[in-house]
Amino acid sequence: MTSVVLEFSGGLELLVDGKKRLEQEVPDKLTLGGLIGWIRSNLIKERHELFSQGQRIRPGVLVLINDVDWELEGKETYNLSSGDCISFISTLHGG
Amino acid sequence: MAPKLCVLCAASRACLRRPKTSEAICKECFYSAFEDEIHETIVNENLFKPGEKIAVGASGGKDSTVLVHVLKLLNERYEYGLDLFLVSVDEGIKGYRDDSLDAVKRNQQEYELPLKIVSYSELYGWTMDQIVEKIGKKSNCTYCGVFRRQALDRGAEYVGADKIATGHNADDIAETVIMNFLRGDFPRLIRCSEAITGDSVGDSLPRVKPFKYTYEKEIVLYAHYKSLDYFATECIYSPEAFRGHARQFIKDIEVARARSIVDTIRSAEKFRTDPRTSSEQTLGACVNCGYMTSQKLCKACLLKQSLESDQKPDQGASQTKERGYHGR
Ligand SMILES: [Zn+2]
User: Fold this and answer.
1) Has residue A95 been placed in a domain?
2) Residue B324: pLDDT above 60?
3) Which of the residues A18, A27, A78, B322 could staple to B145 if both were Cys, CB 3.0 to 4.6 A apart?
């Protein structure tokens, strides 16, 4: 297993029992797309479509890899390493 | 993969890709670019005059929290000479507005700005909870949109403001442009893309949108990197489906072509209606409360009347260019 830190904010924390930050063991050799699918199946408790469609993150949810915009890191193809911090921030909740 | 360097300073590690330009830039260059662009909008669109009192609509959410932060900062940096106030609307929704009003109060203390809270219950005699209990969840966004718009005006008048600044961002405006297009409402399509509205009509205060060209992605990242204190939750009442579709469409398009958001606004700016077919509305005062209206009663009074008489709300009141209840 690989150990990563996951952060949920901007309203997404409501989909994971209100947890904003968790240290999580995930399967080895996941891509970020794979991680998104894994989170959807294993951590999201309700309204899964607000997080992703399969491995595709819902448009309007920002993803940061170690605080860097995932668009600079290959998005879904990024290979997860132990110790990575992945943040999911919804932009879709009230302004 | 080696970390990418910022294309602007070529010194620090890039931390985001700007949606409008596709440039990869670092945090410090992002802060400057973000703040400079808002300053440019303020200057180019003549949003403020020295000495004005500005009521900033503060909901405790991301947009208004960043707006308060940036307006305060730019007002000092560029000496706009503005007197800033926070005005918050309490719709009366247990467990939703309470928490976000707490975020507003924390902002008030952090930025040391005066705060006025106006509530639906004091203005209209109804809280949103009571309205939903009465009419169900079907058209509650209509009530909320109409009531909020007027409540913000009332709060701003109360503090003696000259103008209201709102946190409507580029994504919000593009979404409203699309909605007005799909409704065939071209006067509103044009109006919603203007950085200043309500300038010349009646006694409602002018509204300005300093974030007119600012992407939601950048607002959220700015708040994230600066650790600004905002509150994010969904309205507990069902959002308006039509707006939800427009919002999702804008977000889907952004993934494929991020510039489309600002280009949608540019398209609306170039839109002209045929003067032969457009009729000018004449505005007067509501006979009941004095708020500006093109009819006898203003929309809020019409809705209030329907709440009290068990009738369905008048169709004319169901179209509002204000965002729906859930802030979208
Ligand atoms: Zn830089």
Assistant:
1) no
2) no
3) B322
Residues of A with CB under 8 A from a CB of B: 9-11, 14, 58-60, 62, 64, 67-69, 71-74, 87, 89-95
Which tokens hold the place of B93? 């929704």
Structural domain count of chain A: 1
Q: Which tokens hold the place of B109?
A: 């203390």
Q: Is B57 annotated as a binding residue?
A: yes
Q: Is residue A86 assigned to a domain?
A: yes
Distance CA A75, CA A33 (A): 8
Domain range holding A55?
Answer: 2-90
**What percent of chain A shows pLDDT beyond 90?**
82
Whether B311 has a pLDDT exceeding 70, the answer reads no
Per-residue confidence (pLDDT) for residue B203, from 0 to 100: 61
Beta bridge partners of B85: B55
Q: What local confidence, expressed as pLDDT, does residue B322 receive? A: 38
Distance from CA of B125 to the nearest CA of A (A): 25
CATH number, domain containing residue A50? 3.10.20.30
Domains belonging to chain B, first-starting first, are: 31-273 (3.40.50.620)
Contact A11 B232 (CB under 8 A): yes
pTM of the model: 0.88
Spell out the alpha helix ranges (H) of chain B.
27-44, 62-77, 97-111, 120-124, 128-135, 140-158, 170-183, 186-192, 216-225, 241-256, 260-270, 299-309
Pick from A63, A49, A55, A56: nearest CA to A15: A49
pLDDT tens digits, B108-166: 999 999 999 999 888 888 888 887 888 777 777 777 778 888 899 999 999 999 999 99
